[in-house]
Amino acid sequence: MPKLPRKLLLLLQFNHLTEVGAVVIYHIQAKVVQDKTLKQQLQQFGKDENSHKRELDNIFTKYGSRSLPLEKITRLVCTIFALLSTIAGQNLIVITDMLLEQMGIQMYRKQKRLLVDLVDNETIEKYNVIIKMEEGHLRWLTEWRRTCRSR
Fold this sequence. Notes:
Blueprint: H1 6-32, H2 36-62, H3 71-86, H4 90-115, H5 121-149
Helix pairs in contact: 1-2, 1-3, 1-4, 2-5, 4-5
């Protein structure tokens, strides 16, 4: 496989770190929420984000790079962020996660547009799957929040 431009590889590596952070955030949030359904979903979202992290690792390895050596610091920063997001309770957790999912969707869509002429169809299909999963996370969080507000 041909190597990708350095700037694009850096975007992929950065996205990989955001997934590392998302795994931490969902894990911590799932520990503190009281709503059993929300807890289970946050745990599942963490597993999904871990799967996305592995896919990204495979993609940039395939195209000539490796992960940045910043996972430990990313985990630490995201632990602090996750704890702050839990201070005001479940509603703030869900709002925070909705914003993070929206940013993730935008990032994946942008990267897919940049990659489309540079990578194979399998890589683009993996991006499509990840985008659909992230959109599903956002839909679920939005619906959960709407349902809780109407109670």
